[in-house]
Structure formats: C-alpha cells, structure tokens
Amino acid sequence: MGRILVTDDERSICELLDIALRRDGHKVETVTSGEAAKRKIESALFDVIVTDIKMPGVDGVEVLRHAHQVSPETAVILMTAVDDYEAAVQAVKAGGAADYIRKSPGLVDDIKLGIARALERVSLSRQNFALRRDAAARNSLDNIIGISPALEKLKQTIRTVASTNSTILVYGESGTGKELVARAVHTCSPRASEAFVSVNCGAFPETLLESELFGYVKGAFTGANQNKRGLFEVADRGTIFLDEIGEMTMPMQVKLLRVLQERTVRPVGGTSEIAVDVRVIAATNRDLDKQVAEGTFREDLYYRLSVIPIRVPALRERKGDIPLLANHFLKKYAPAAGKSIHAVTAPSLEALSGYDWPGNVRQLENTIERAVALELGSELHLELPAERSKARAVAAGAETAFGVPAGSVLPEGVNMEHYVAQIERSLLQSALGQTHGVQIKAAEVLGISYRSFRHLMKKYEL
Questions:
Q1: Distance between CA 365 and CA 2 in Å, rounded?
Q2: Whether the predicted pLDDT of 335 surpasses 80
C-alpha cells in the first residue's frame, strides 16, 4: 500500500478517489488546487501523486515539474480530458510522468491500476538503491566460517530466531562478526527478498544520523534542496541493522524508542508520520547493562532492543576455527593480489591457533591480508601479530620517558596525565601505521568507536 496525493479542482473527483483508494488500504490526502499540491509535496513524502492537468492557476504539468524537482522518487500520474490529452502524452514522453489516464466512466479502476504499476516501480527502485548501497546484503550462514561447538550453537540460534519479527540485539567484542550474524538472520528470514540496510550509528553526528535514519523534507535545514527518504523507509518490509547502538546520543535514543513503539517515522522538517514495516537488529561491543546503570543508555530502549539477545563468541573461544578462517582469507586475498599461494604452512597455523586474538576475526583477517601482500613464495608464512610487543614497547617507552615501571609509582610521584597521554598517543600512532592510515580500521584495532578515535586524534593533534 502507498501514500497517495490526489489533486483535482473538482471536489467530487477528490472525494470519489479518496473513498475508493482508502478501501484498498492506501493512505490518501486530497487537495483541490495546484498551489495546495505544491505545499503538500514540500511538507510530506508521497509514493504517488495523481493530478488533473487542467486546473486554474498552477496546472498539473507544473505540479509534475515541482514534484520532480522536490521529490524525484515520487511517481506522478496525470488525469486528462480529451482536450488536454496531447499535453499528457508529451509529459510521459519527456520522462516526467509515470502514466496518464483519461477521465472516463472507468476512471477509478484505471487509477487503481496505474497506482499499482507505479508502486511496483517505486518498490523496485528502493530495492535497487538498497542493493547498490550494500551489495553484500544477501549473505547466508555459509559466510559464518567455522565448525566449533560455539559457532554451531550460534548458527542454530540464528535459524531459530530468523522466522520471527522480534527485535534482536547482537553483542560481542569488536571484530567478532556481528554484522555477518545480522545479515544471516535477514537471509534466513521471510524478509530475505527485501532490503537489508546497514548503518553505523557511531559514524554520524546526531543531526546527520536523524536525517539519515528518518529522512527529511525540502527546506528542513540548509542544503535540504529536495525530499529524501530515510533508511527506515528504504528498509521497509526488510531489515535495518543499527551497528554501534551504544554510541547513540540520548536525544536520538528517545526518537528511536518512539519508532520502535509506534512503527512510524517522521522525516526531519515533516508534519506527518510514515508507517514502516521493518525488522530492527542492533549491535554493540559495549556493556549496555553498565551504560544503563551509569545513565548513558535508556533502560526502556535497552529492553525494546534486547527482545532476543544473541552473543557472538570471541575468536579465542573457538580456536578450532582459526585454520578454517586463515585458509578462507588466504583464498580471498591471494587472487586479488595476483599471487599463487596455495596454503598456510603448518607452523604458521600452529602459531596462529596459539594466539588470543584480542581483535578477533577482523584482526586475523588483517594479519592474513598483510602476510599475503608480503609473501614471495607459494606457501604463506606468518608471524604472530605485533600488538602485544607494541603494547610492551609503548609501556617501555613510557617507563623510559618518566622513569616509572609500568603499573607502579615512584615515592616522589608521577605526572599521571602526561604518562597516560604518552601511552594513548603511541597506541594511536601504532594503529594508524598498522592500518596504513585508515582511521576507521585503526579505531577497530584499538576497540574504540570512530567518534572516540577522532576525538583522540584531535586531542593529540595527529
């Protein structure tokens, strides 16, 4: 069903279509002038606009042009009489109008059919947008690599909960693959043929996150030159994945809670609510129970999100999967690097399996990618990741700088602020070096949000 705007200077036509379309389940608004139609288009989002061509003042062609400029995703159907038939044909040929329908005794049925065709095109357009935005949206359980008991239990949980519409909270350490779990839930669900939309809540400032999630109307803020649908609308009938939910500010938490309760969104600057049928999956590497206790995360939102909690095990809890993962990443990166590396050496696999992997699967993947880039032979040789030695070097550097053994204080005291700053700065520099300057990856290596990473970068003028 769609949101329909009907425009005709004959009130009887508006009333006739309003009754008929509402019976079919559409949400309908009617206006009796082109001027009123333009104001409606600027203040609300519509799927289809049905407008008469000949109206006093602003005619239907002008309404069409205005809709195309302000809300280009909206389909426009022109109603024509015999004497303005050619104008309608030209509007369709020019690519502005989706369809034209002659006023006749069968007007209502023709309008219903035209709206159905237009809504189908709108739906396909939204799905294509979502797929282009996230081309890997259809990942399945096969993308969750491993056969350990911990992982088999996780896969069984995904199969069990996928058929429900309940909100899910995926939690676990950074780098464990929480988004893969969310995608697998979507792919195994009845919503699999619809869009999977992923958004990192920690990557946007509050005002931008609101417009990204809920959309906005023209003129809502500087630069809002046309209506834009939010990601909740893009994900309609599908799944939206809210990563790093613990980074969301308190005002945004209030707005998200309302969406979960009412199942409607209001675009920034808009005046009407838009119903959405979306499954919400949230994820975090933070301790939300602790955040609730500290008052930085709303308790009511926490309970709304964690209807079904799913914990993703850390890599150290399923070390038997490390050889499978290592070979999987080798097959992924060796062809891309143009190298014929057929296997990881046995000593390398043994060394990898004995490491704790504080950065989990993401850290293992980065290690394999780096080793493939440096390998000159036909077998992959790896050394243990350097994070621990880096941490020891940082601590040693701090000890050298301040003359203080790590974890202790001299009798005369120590400047703790400078001591901690030296360690933080060194860790930031090490992470940036490891990720070749890619800040988002560096934040993931350090297990902090991108927002926190940027704050520290600014603090230390890096």
A1: 44
A2: yes
Q: Say if residue 306 is exposed, middle or buried (CB neighbours under 10 Å; 0-12, 13-18, 19+).
A: middle
- The pLDDT confidence band at residue 133, using thresholds 50, 70 and 90, is very low
3-state helix, strand, coil in the chain (%, to 5): 55, 15, 35
Residues of each domain in the chain carrying CATH 3.40.50.2300: 3-131
Report the amino acid identity of residue 446: L
In 3D space, the residue among 310, 345, 352 whose CA is nearest the CA of residue 176 turns out to be 310
CB 310 within 8 A of CB 154: yes
Torsion, Cα 31 36 39 43, to 10 degrees, reads: -20
Structural contact between residues 137 and 46, judged by C-beta atoms closer than 8 angstroms? no
pLDDT in tens, 188-200: 888 888 889 999 9
Express as a percent the part of the chain with pLDDT over 90.
53
pLDDT at 459 (0 to 100): 83
Among the CATH numbers 1.10.8.60, 1.10.10.10, 1.20.1070.10, 3.30.540.10, which is that of 315-380?
Answer: 1.10.8.60
pLDDT greater than 60 at residue 396: no
pTM of the model: 0.63
Mean pLDDT of 435-459: 84
CATH of domain 141-311: 3.40.50.300
Q: Average of pLDDT values for 428-445?
A: 84
Instruction: Considering the chain, tell me which residue range(s) the CATH 1.10.8.60 domain(s) occupy.
Output: 315-380
- For residue 274, what are its two tokens? 């838009």
Of 323, 313, 367, nearest to 345 (Cα)? 323
